[in-house]
Amino acid sequence: MSTTAYAPLISALTNGVTYGVRVFSYGNSVTTGPFTVAVNNTAYTPGQHDNVADAYVCSLGSNAPGVPLNNHGLEVGEPAGSNWNFDPDFNTGVSLGKTFWFTFTPPSTSAYTFTGSVGGNLFTMAVYSAPSAAAMLTGGQTEIGSVDGTTLSNLCLTAGTQYFIQINLDGAYGTTGTPSL
Question: Which helix (H) or strand (E) holds 181?
Answer without folding.
Answer: none
